[in-house]
Amino acid sequence: RVCVGMGMDSVQTVVEKATEKVGGMSTAGQATAACTALYAASTIAYYRSVLGPVYGLRDVTIASLLRWRGWERHPKSLSTTIAVGLLRLLGGRHPSTFQFEHVLPPLPIPTLEASLARFLESVKPFLTEKELADTKVEVERFRKNEGRKLQRLLVLHSWLPKNWRNWLAEWWELAAYLMNREPLPVSCSFYVLDRTYFENPPTKDPTSRAAVMVDGLLRFKLRLDEGKMKPFRAFDAIPLTMSSYQYLYGVTRVPGVPTDKIHRCSDARHIVVMRGGRYFRVEVVDEKGRRAPVVELRKVMKKIYDSVGEEGEEGGRVGNVRKPAQLVPCLTALPRTEWAEARQHLIEMEGGVNAEVVKAFEDALFVVVFDGKDEEELHDRIRRLFHNWGEDRWFDKSFNLIVFDSGVCGGIIEHTPSDAPTPAHAFEYAFWEEHTAKERGAYNEDGVVVAPIGPGEAQLRGEASHHSPSLSSFFPTAKSMLARAGRGGAKSHSRSLLSVEELKFVVDDYISDKIAHSQSSFRDFAKKVDVRLRPFREFGKNVAKAAGVSPDGLFQAAIQLANRRYYGKPVLTYETAGTRTFALGRTETIRSATVEAQQLVDAIMEGRPAKECYPLLKKAASRHVQVARAAGQGQGCDRHLLGLRIINYFKDIKSPFFSSKAYSLPYTVATSQTPIWQEKFGVGKQNLAAGEHTPGGGFGPIAENGIGVSYFVLEDGVYFHISSNAQPDPEEGAAKYEEYLIGAMREMRRVAEAGTDEKKRVASNV
């Protein structure tokens, strides 16, 4: 790092001069002086400051404290209190966005014995006694034989230079996303809803709404670029990786064979606006990184919006049928191999006539879609946001901002580059900026934005230290990360701010046939999934806290009860845990269908009194916390076993363990809880009915006849996004599961309040 940043000659000169002045010293003294000089020179070059040696000692101390991990095992101990205090002090009040990336500990590899023990415990509810006995024999055989060899090979894999920070990162991106050949919408995308879904939007002028949302998203990006977005720190001390934030903008998942790749335009400055089958490139950031004024941006949006009618040839239609050239984005909803072949043909046809158009889409910061008339029913609006039947979206982009004629908006997000909290943070930031702008009178009486949005973002994240290194110095492996996943470092061409260029595709019979095929096949694909939102206003974290149980433990217990009533048996359940306290960390699996949760469900199904069920609820919630904590510490079994399975495949070892019934159990129900950042932005105490919160978003099931549950928890309520692919009627399946889930939530409240009453009775007697 020193030689790259400063140059070997410079470092050598510093060391030689230092040793010349201490020539009379002993050999040991000269070595000490040389090392001291080298340390001073290298840290000054690395941190680009004369205080480099101090910063170096600071970061070594932070790295040592983070690798200690005692705060996880003994959160209330004196040593943890001291360590957290030191981390708060050394981290500073206003650290830069990527300041801690190079000091985060690497993702650990659990021991083989620990992962197999967790695996065995997790599958008990789903196996008969004989199947469980057979599984124990198979697990023990695996542990003594090929498991040991695979574990050694996995450790060796983690020692490779490209893997030393995170042995899983490359494999996870490939195995979980890039190798998947299904269409991106539904299977690898999720939607986000407007915070105003149950009330009038801030403005009914769609062009003003689009301009203000684009402005908010650009403000978020520019703060990232400047390092001014304060990184998240648990307990305001323990940093979380922010690495996924660099893949929000200018990022596209490009189809390929046999795998896709991630393309990232490093200096993207334009967006693509879609309206009525026509596409426009709009420059929104200049070469100095300054964004377009929101009032002027609205004028450009207005011109685009007005220039494209809903009907007529100019609007991309002949009668009621669009021309094939106006439907090219439909191709991004094809299965990935088919889209890769069609894309290659599209780019190469007629001497590359479409190459620059495709490049404009793939290099764009993001895509904005004016989506026409809004749906009256929320259920239908969610389906429009989720997949829109495969039309009018560039599904390969990291995200599409979608604005309806009513002013209501939302988004569709591609999952590969980052997990839900990252784009959710960006959208909620833009929503909150818009909320504060409306309060400051940024809109006139007609709902047209007429004033700059203003510096409201200071309320959300702190300012960065001017002495903190940039992303390039603190995150030296960024280039290797891009390269190993096929991530490009493409540059965009220079254009004037707010210049507009219409993008036009040329198509032939092959592309026209592919478009028609995509429309029909994806419509059949999308019909197999239904999504819906249920705001639950009866209680939230408050009831769980009063009962002395983990809120997530209570909600997951409710999900287990709903699962039992829906399927008639326990089913393997997936919940997402974040591993962002590690370098390049993403997720691990919480296997939430624990033995303890099933015991609670059995008691409730048997009709036992709430007071008898309360101890079982506490036990189930406590066990859930243990499983979730282990997963967040990188000690879950799923990612570890996946790593062993990948090595098993590449080394052609063919272990029977990976084809066993227990290992092959599907995640019938997939769940995820995403934090709502606005609670930190000053509106967290508002009642749900006030309409101040973004209700988040949802995703599709990941197994056949499966259920997906995305939930967003507030103090006084929960937003449940429920999806189903039950056949032959997924809509009926989602509605039925919703009924069971709401009933289960009420049952859990009854049990929790019985415990709360008991606690109050004991306290009064004391």
Could you please describe the fold and organization of this structure?
The N and C termini lie far apart (64 Å). The chain has 766 residues and is of the alpha+beta class. The longest helix is centred in the C-terminal third of the chain and has 36 residues, at 730-765. A hairpin with a 2-residue loop joins strand 6 and strand 7 (278-283). 46% of the residues lie in helices and 12% in strands. It is globular and about 65 Å long. It is built from 26 helices and 20 strands.
User: What is the CA-atom radius of gyration, in angstroms?
Assistant: 27 Å
Structural class: alpha+beta
How many distinct beta strands? Answer: 20
Main pleated sheet: 8 strands, mixed
Strand share of the residues? Answer: 5-15%
| Basic shape | globular
Strand arrangement within the widest β-sheet reads: 13-7-6-10-11-12-1-18
Q: Figure out the total of helices.
A: 26
Mean pLDDT: 86
Instruction: State the end-to-end CA separation.
Output: 64 Å
Low-confidence stretches: 1-8, 311-319, 456-488, 681-690
Helix content: 40-55%
In terms of quaternary structure, the protein is single chain
